Protein backbone atom coordinates (compact mmCIF):
# COMPACT_ATOMS: atom_id res chain seq x y z
CA UNK A 1 0.00 0.00 0.00
CA UNK A 2 2.82 2.45 0.90
CA UNK A 3 4.73 1.70 -2.33
CA UNK A 4 1.69 2.56 -4.43
CA UNK A 5 1.09 5.69 -2.37
CA UNK A 6 4.70 6.84 -2.81
CA UNK A 7 4.61 6.17 -6.59
CA UNK A 8 1.40 8.16 -6.94
CA UNK A 9 2.89 11.01 -4.93
CA UNK A 10 6.15 10.99 -7.01
CA UNK A 11 4.23 11.07 -10.28
CA UNK A 12 2.05 13.86 -8.97
CA UNK A 13 5.13 15.74 -7.73
CA UNK A 14 6.83 15.60 -11.10
CA UNK A 15 3.77 17.07 -12.77
CA UNK A 16 2.91 19.86 -10.35
CA UNK A 17 4.41 22.82 -8.49
CA UNK A 18 5.59 22.72 -4.87
CA UNK A 19 2.36 24.18 -3.42
CA UNK A 20 0.25 21.60 -5.26
CA UNK A 21 2.70 18.94 -4.05
CA UNK A 22 2.02 19.89 -0.42
CA UNK A 23 -1.73 19.79 -1.02
CA UNK A 24 -1.48 16.33 -2.60
CA UNK A 25 0.67 15.06 0.28
CA UNK A 26 -1.85 16.43 2.77
CA UNK A 27 -4.72 14.69 0.99
CA UNK A 28 -2.78 11.41 0.75
CA UNK A 29 -1.84 11.50 4.43
CA UNK A 30 -5.43 12.32 5.39
CA UNK A 31 -6.69 9.40 3.31
CA UNK A 32 -4.05 7.08 4.77
CA UNK A 33 -4.95 8.04 8.34
CA UNK A 34 -8.72 8.08 7.84
CA UNK A 35 -8.90 4.78 5.94
CA UNK A 36 -9.21 2.61 9.10
CA UNK A 37 -11.90 4.92 10.48
CA UNK A 38 -13.90 4.69 7.25
CA UNK A 39 -13.58 0.89 7.20
CA UNK A 40 -14.73 0.65 10.84
CA UNK A 41 -17.72 2.85 10.06
CA UNK A 42 -18.64 0.70 7.06
CA UNK A 43 -18.30 -2.48 9.15
CA UNK A 44 -20.49 -1.01 11.89
CA UNK A 45 -23.12 0.00 9.34
CA UNK A 46 -23.12 -3.49 7.85
CA UNK A 47 -23.45 -5.04 11.32
CA UNK A 48 -26.31 -2.70 12.21
CA UNK A 49 -28.08 -3.53 8.95
CA UNK A 50 -27.80 -7.23 9.69
CA UNK A 51 -29.46 -6.78 13.11
CA UNK A 52 -32.39 -4.69 11.83
CA UNK A 53 -35.72 -6.23 12.78
CA UNK A 54 -38.58 -5.91 10.31
CA UNK A 55 -41.57 -4.55 12.21
CA UNK A 56 -44.14 -4.83 9.43
CA UNK A 57 -43.99 -6.16 5.91
CA UNK A 58 -46.01 -4.38 3.23
CA UNK A 59 -47.72 -6.84 0.89
CA UNK A 60 -49.57 -4.40 -1.38
CA UNK A 61 -50.01 -0.67 -1.87
CA UNK A 62 -53.33 0.59 -3.23
CA UNK A 63 -53.41 4.28 -4.17
CA UNK A 64 -51.32 5.22 -1.14
CA UNK A 65 -53.00 2.84 1.33
CA UNK A 66 -51.13 -0.31 2.33
CA UNK A 67 -51.99 -3.91 3.11
CA UNK A 68 -49.58 -5.55 5.50
CA UNK A 69 -48.70 -9.14 6.26
CA UNK A 70 -50.39 -8.66 9.63
CA UNK A 71 -53.61 -7.66 7.84
CA UNK A 72 -53.50 -10.86 5.81
CA UNK A 73 -52.78 -12.95 8.91
CA UNK A 74 -55.68 -11.31 10.76
CA UNK A 75 -57.93 -12.10 7.80
CA UNK A 76 -56.75 -15.71 7.80
CA UNK A 77 -57.48 -16.01 11.52
CA UNK A 78 -60.94 -14.52 11.01
CA UNK A 79 -61.68 -17.03 8.24
CA UNK A 80 -60.45 -19.86 10.45
CA UNK A 81 -62.59 -18.69 13.38
CA UNK A 82 -65.71 -18.45 11.22
CA UNK A 83 -65.13 -21.93 9.81
CA UNK A 84 -64.60 -23.39 13.28
CA UNK A 85 -67.90 -21.84 14.40
CA UNK A 86 -69.58 -23.61 11.49
CA UNK A 87 -68.12 -26.90 12.71
CA UNK A 88 -65.43 -27.37 10.07
CA UNK A 89 -62.27 -29.03 11.42
CA UNK A 90 -59.30 -31.20 10.52
CA UNK A 91 -58.06 -31.39 6.91
CA UNK A 92 -61.24 -29.77 5.61
CA UNK A 93 -60.54 -26.73 7.82
CA UNK A 94 -56.93 -26.50 6.62
CA UNK A 95 -58.03 -26.71 2.99
CA UNK A 96 -60.78 -24.09 3.42
CA UNK A 97 -58.44 -21.71 5.27
CA UNK A 98 -55.83 -22.11 2.54
CA UNK A 99 -58.39 -21.35 -0.18
CA UNK A 100 -59.73 -18.39 1.78
CA UNK A 101 -56.20 -17.12 2.29
CA UNK A 102 -55.61 -17.06 -1.46
CA UNK A 103 -58.59 -14.79 -1.97
CA UNK A 104 -57.80 -12.65 1.06
CA UNK A 105 -55.37 -10.26 -0.65
CA UNK A 106 -57.69 -9.75 -3.61
CA UNK A 107 -60.63 -9.14 -1.27
CA UNK A 108 -58.66 -6.63 0.79
CA UNK A 109 -57.56 -4.77 -2.35
CA UNK A 110 -61.18 -4.66 -3.54
CA UNK A 111 -62.31 -3.40 -0.14
CA UNK A 112 -59.63 -0.68 -0.10
CA UNK A 113 -60.71 0.47 -3.56
CA UNK A 114 -64.35 0.62 -2.47
CA UNK A 115 -63.47 2.49 0.72
CA UNK A 116 -61.45 4.98 -1.32
CA UNK A 117 -64.39 5.37 -3.69
CA UNK A 118 -66.68 6.03 -0.72
CA UNK A 119 -64.30 8.68 0.55
CA UNK A 120 -64.15 10.25 -2.93
CA UNK A 121 -67.96 10.39 -2.91
CA UNK A 122 -67.79 12.10 0.52
CA UNK A 123 -69.91 9.41 2.13
CA UNK A 124 -69.96 10.03 5.88
CA UNK A 125 -70.68 6.92 7.93
CA UNK A 126 -69.59 8.12 11.37
CA UNK A 127 -73.15 8.20 12.71
CA UNK A 128 -73.79 4.63 11.54
CA UNK A 129 -70.52 3.44 13.08
CA UNK A 130 -71.43 5.04 16.41
CA UNK A 131 -74.89 3.49 16.20
CA UNK A 132 -73.49 -0.01 15.59
CA UNK A 133 -70.92 0.30 18.38
CA UNK A 134 -73.63 1.56 20.76
CA UNK A 135 -75.84 -1.38 19.82
CA UNK A 136 -72.96 -3.79 20.49
CA UNK A 137 -72.29 -2.15 23.85
CA UNK A 138 -75.94 -2.46 24.87
CA UNK A 139 -76.05 -6.12 23.76
CA UNK A 140 -72.90 -6.91 25.74
CA UNK A 141 -74.39 -5.09 28.79
CA UNK A 142 -71.11 -3.27 29.44
CA UNK A 143 -71.63 0.37 30.34
CA UNK A 144 -68.04 1.37 31.12
CA UNK A 145 -66.28 2.49 27.88
CA UNK A 146 -62.86 1.20 29.00
CA UNK A 147 -64.29 -2.22 29.85
CA UNK A 148 -66.10 -2.26 26.51
CA UNK A 149 -62.82 -1.50 24.72
CA UNK A 150 -61.20 -4.40 26.61
CA UNK A 151 -64.16 -6.61 25.66
CA UNK A 152 -63.69 -5.75 21.97
CA UNK A 153 -59.96 -6.50 22.24
CA UNK A 154 -60.66 -9.89 23.83
CA UNK A 155 -63.34 -10.84 21.29
CA UNK A 156 -61.61 -9.67 18.12
CA UNK A 157 -57.92 -9.51 18.94
CA UNK A 158 -57.91 -5.91 17.67
CA UNK A 159 -57.66 -2.59 19.42
CA UNK A 160 -60.91 -0.68 19.73
CA UNK A 161 -59.72 1.89 17.16
CA UNK A 162 -58.83 -0.85 14.65
CA UNK A 163 -62.21 -2.49 15.20
CA UNK A 164 -63.98 0.84 14.75
CA UNK A 165 -62.04 1.44 11.51
CA UNK A 166 -62.99 -2.04 10.31
CA UNK A 167 -66.69 -1.31 10.89
CA UNK A 168 -66.33 2.04 9.12
CA UNK A 169 -64.60 0.42 6.15
CA UNK A 170 -67.24 -2.30 6.00
CA UNK A 171 -70.06 0.27 5.86
CA UNK A 172 -68.19 2.37 3.28
CA UNK A 173 -67.64 -0.76 1.20
CA UNK A 174 -71.34 -1.58 1.26
CA UNK A 175 -72.30 1.96 0.30
CA UNK A 176 -69.64 2.27 -2.40
CA UNK A 177 -70.37 -1.00 -4.14
CA UNK A 178 -72.35 -0.21 -7.30
CA UNK A 179 -74.18 -3.54 -7.10
CA UNK A 180 -75.65 -2.83 -3.66
CA UNK A 181 -79.14 -1.49 -3.26
CA UNK A 182 -77.94 1.09 -0.80
CA UNK A 183 -75.64 2.58 -3.44
CA UNK A 184 -78.50 2.66 -5.93
CA UNK A 185 -80.66 4.53 -3.40
CA UNK A 186 -77.84 6.97 -2.67
CA UNK A 187 -77.19 7.52 -6.39
CA UNK A 188 -80.90 8.02 -7.03
CA UNK A 189 -81.23 10.57 -4.22
CA UNK A 190 -78.12 12.44 -5.43
CA UNK A 191 -79.34 12.57 -9.01
CA UNK A 192 -82.80 13.76 -7.87
CA UNK A 193 -81.25 16.53 -5.77
CA UNK A 194 -79.20 17.75 -8.76
CA UNK A 195 -82.23 18.04 -11.06
Report on the structure:
- By secondary structure, the chain is mainly α.
- It folds into 3 domains: 2-50, no CATH class; 53-105, no CATH class; 121-195, no CATH class.
- Helix content is 78%, strand content 5%.
- It contains 8 helices and 2 strands, in the order ααββαααααα.
- It has helices at 2-15, 18-50, 69-85, 91-120, 126-140, 145-156, 160-176, 181-194, and strands spanning 58-62, 65-68.
- Strands 1-2 form a two-stranded antiparallel ribbon.
- A hairpin with a 2-residue loop joins strand 1 (58-62) and strand 2 (65-68).
- Helix 1 (2-15) packs antiparallel against helix 2 (18-50) and helix 3 packs across helix 4 (91-120).
Question: What keywords describe this structure?
Answer:
195 residues, mainly alpha, two-stranded antiparallel ribbon, 8 helices, 2 strands, 78% helix, disordered N terminus
- Average predicted local confidence, pLDDT: 74
The portion of residues forming beta strands comes to: under 5%
Strand order of the largest sheet: 1-2
Report the structural category.
mainly alpha
Kindly report how far apart the N and C termini lie. Answer: 85 Å
Q: In the residues, how many domains can be counted?
A: 3
Q: Which regions contain 5 or more consecutive residues with pLDDT less than 50?
A: 1-16, 180-184
Major beta sheet, specifics? Answer: 2 strands, antiparallel
Helix-strand pattern, N to C? Answer: HHEEHHHHHH
Number of helices: 8
Per DSSP E runs of 2 or more residues, the count of β-strands stands at 2
Helix content: over 70%
Q: Overall 3D geometry?
A: globular
- The whole-angstrom Rg is 31 Å
Amino acid sequence: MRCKLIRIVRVAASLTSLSTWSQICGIMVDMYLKWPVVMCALAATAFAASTVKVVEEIVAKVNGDIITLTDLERSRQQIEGELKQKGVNGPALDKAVKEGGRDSLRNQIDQLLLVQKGKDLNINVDAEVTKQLGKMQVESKITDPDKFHDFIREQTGMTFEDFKAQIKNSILTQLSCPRSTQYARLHLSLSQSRS
